[in-house]
Specification:
This protein is an alpha/beta fold. The chain has a domain at 2-181 and 232-261: NAD(P)-binding Rossmann-like Domain (Rossmann fold). It is 42% helix and 17% strand. It has eleven helices and 13 strands. Strands 3-2-1-4-5-6-11 form a seven-stranded parallel sheet, sandwiched between helices. Helix 6 links the parallel strand 5 and strand 6. Bound molecules: uridine-5'-diphosphate. Uridine-5'-diphosphate binds at residues 86, 126, 178, 197-199, 202, 214-217, 228, 230, 268, 291, 294.
Length: 333
């Protein structure tokens, strides 16, 4: 099978490329390198023993993307490309809507022109907003509290609509909670070039000495220790979920959304403590006010996704930190 990965040089995309190449598929990466390095293509080839095709293309360039899709003869697309920071989206709302929403419609146009009808989409568990109960099932209301989450919720509506009017489409939207960690080889990992703002990379930079301390954004949430609770899932588990999702879209039609988390809520303080324990060193922290747009607690009800995707087990937070640190410690920049 040939699979096109938009955002294929990014955090999840690069790990996905390795897994698909190792499974014998052909992989085409499309990435505008706005938050990734082209050198990741070499790393992917080094791990997988095979080089993916790479195109430095913005997904909003529909003409260029259409050419890539046509030449690839692909069966399916995984659309990872997009902007992903809650905090940044509060300052750049229009950019977030443009890149994420116009990016998706461009992918849909190019797919439509070239006859591709299978898509796996990177959505977010943050679209639920302040949920009535946690863990959150897929049936919970969608109530985004920031432009990033809003853009993902709107993308899901677009995809559901496309599937409703054209039953030849098959779309699986994966609502990620908090992907983290790295490939066990230590060769690829979370390596943003534009903004380091997600908690695990910030912890890594602090352990590494590049940052003085980890800011804790909010200590007055309605949670056990007052800090925000999230559901951290190892990137390799996320990648396995996508591989299973690609199998599902081959045999079904219509739109479906599934949660991708571990189902276990971990607070910011608990996560920093776990990192300190695994890496055996103190991690300095500084308390800050809440970030606007953040909610108190998000964790996935994984009942449905485990059943649909045949997932049995997940790597733990200790593996997330061991792998993330192997990558960070081995990086030279
Ligand atoms: N967070 C924090 N300090 C940081 C980065 C994040 O306290 O340096 C908190 C953030 O407010 C949120 C959680 O950690 O409650 C996870 O944030 P992240 O940006 O990693 O992912 P999000 O859940 O916002 O997509």
């Amino acid at each position: 099978m040939t699979i096109v990965l938009t955002g294929g040089c990014g955090f999840i995309g690069s790990h996905q490329a390795v897994a698909l190449l190792e499974a014998g598929h052909d992989v085409v990466l499309v990435d505008d390198l706005s938050n990734a390095r082209e050198s990741v293509v070499d790393r992917i080839a080094e791990i997988a023993g095979r080089r993916p095709e790479f195109h430095a293309t913005d997904v909003r360039d529909t003409e260029a993307l259409t050419k890539v899709l046509a030449a690839s003869g692909c069966d399916s697309i995984i659309h990872f490309a997009g902007l992903k920071h809650v905090s940044e989206s509060m300052e750049r709302a229009i950019d977030y809507l443009d890149v994420n929403l116009a990016g998706l419609t461009s992918v849909l146009k190019a797919a439509d022109t070239t006859g591709v009808r299978r898509l796996v989409f990177s959505s977010s568990g943050s679209i639920y907003g302040p949920a009535e109960r946690v863990p959150i099932p897929e049936t919970a209301p969608v109530n985004p509290t920031n432009p990033y989450s809003r853009s993902k919720a709107l993308c899901e509506q677009v995809l559901a609509q496309v599937c409703a009017v054209d039953p030849s489409w098959s779309v699986m939207s994966l609502r990620y909670f908090n992907p983290a960690g790295a490939h066990p080889s230590g060769l690829i990992g979370e390596d943003p070039t534009h903004l380091i703002s997600n908690l695990v990379p910030v912890i890594m930079e602090t352990v590494n000495g590049a940052f003085d301390s980890v800011p804790i954004f909010g200590t007055d949430f309605d949670t056990d220790d007052g800090t925000a609770v999230r559901d951290y899932i190892h990137v390799m588990d996320v990648v396995e979920a996508h591989a299973a999702a690609l199998d599902v879209v081959k045999t079904t039609t219509g739109f479906e959304a599934l949660n991708i988390g571990r189902g276990e809520g971990v607070s910011v303080r608990q996560l920093i403590t776990a990192a300190g324990d695994v890496l055996d060193r103190p991690i300095p922290t500084v308390e800050h006010p809440r970030r606007t747009g953040d909610v108190a607690a998000l964790a996935a009800d994984t009942t449905r996704s485990k059943k649909r995707l045949g997932i049995h087990d997940y790597r733990g937070v200790d593996t997330i930190f061991r792998d993330a640190w192997r990558f960070r410690a081995g990086r030279t920049t």
